């Protein structure tokens, strides 16, 4: 299993306060930039932590909906959504400029991520907002998704992402958070789930089927109450198998 290098990312700056414990075990982070959580102060604090740990920094724009933590789809015109995404990315980029750091990637959050994966209008709005960034910034997207296809067509570099702490349906969508089996909370199951995706390029869905999938970055949700324990276990077990997190 040597020679495998993967990325572990976490959603951070969301008001949970566990960033300093997560940073040693991740290689990239997605910083909330005011849509579902976060403000100038939390962005500054999280950026400094990421810089100290050598963790790649990404923007984590969302539907502008702090009340629902960006986890409920919003009816928005493409122009309004474009502006909301651009404003959030710009807010983080201003913080990065002060620290002399580059934005490495962008990853939509919550309902926006899930909708852009299946809805071409939402995906197109998001990709158009990405095109306002001059430097080549990567986009974290689900394998075989609508947003992946549209990003490729528009020459936006993509990185396929899978969720270390979420179960999948047969169509590779995530099991809805309202379902009891949506989250993976057991370190053994999480390692099996991630290791299978790395080694076999397959994911075991909740029906027990093995579906083809590709991923080079794996997400742990920072707001998962077990996040620190789970990411540490995953990091150490991957390392023991000769898989580098970088």
Automatic annotation (TrEMBL):
One Gene Ontology molecular-function label: 5-oxoprolinase (ATP-hydrolyzing) activity
SUPFAM superfamilies membership: Glycoside hydrolase/deacetylase (SSF88713)
Coiled coil: none
Enzyme type, top EC level: hydrolase
CDD domains, per database record: LamB_YcsF_like_1
A matching Pfam family: LamB_YcsF
InterPro entries given in the database record: Glyco_hydro/deAcase_b/a-brl, LamB/YcsF/PxpA-like
Entry keyword Hydrolase: yes
Keywords: Hydrolase
PANTHER family found in the cross-reference section: 5-OXOPROLINASE SUBUNIT A, UNCHARACTERIZED PROTEIN YBGL-RELATED
Cross-referenced NCBIfam families: PRK05406.1-3, PRK05406.1-5
Protein's name according to its UniProt entry: 5-oxoprolinase subunit PxpA
Protein species of origin: Hyunsoonleella rubra
């Amino acid at each position: 299993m040597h020679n495998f290098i993967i990325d572990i990312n976490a959603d951070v700056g969301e008001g949970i306060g566990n960033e300093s414990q997560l940073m040693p075990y991740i290689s990239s982070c997605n910083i909330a930039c005011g849509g579902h959580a976060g403000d100038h102060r939390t962005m500054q604090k999280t950026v400094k932590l990421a810089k100290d740990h050598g963790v790649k920094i990404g923007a984590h724009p969302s539907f502008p909906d702090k009340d629902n933590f960006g986890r409920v789809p919003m009816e928005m015109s493409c122009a309004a959504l474009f502006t909301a995404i651009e404003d959030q990315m710009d807010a983080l980029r201003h913080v990065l400029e002060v620290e002399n750091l580059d934005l490495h990637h962008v990853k939509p959050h919550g309902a926006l991520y899930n909708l852009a994966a299946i809805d071409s209008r939402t995906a197109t709005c998001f990709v158009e907002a990405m095109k306002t960034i001059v430097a080549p910034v990567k986009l974290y997207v689900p394998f075989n998704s609508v947003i992946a296809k549209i990003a490729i067509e528009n020459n936006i570099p993509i990185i396929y992402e899978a969720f270390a702490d979420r179960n999948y349906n047969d169509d590779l969508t995530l099991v809805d958070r309202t379902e009891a089996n949506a989250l993976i909370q057991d370190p053994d199951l999480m390692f099996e789930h991630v290791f299978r995706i790395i080694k076999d390029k397959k994911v075991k869905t909740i029906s027990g089927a093995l579906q083809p999938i590709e991923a080079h970055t794996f997400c742990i949700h920072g707001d998962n109450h077990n996040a620190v324990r789970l990411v540490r276990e995953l990091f150490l077990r991957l390392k023991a198998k000769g898989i580098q997190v970088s």
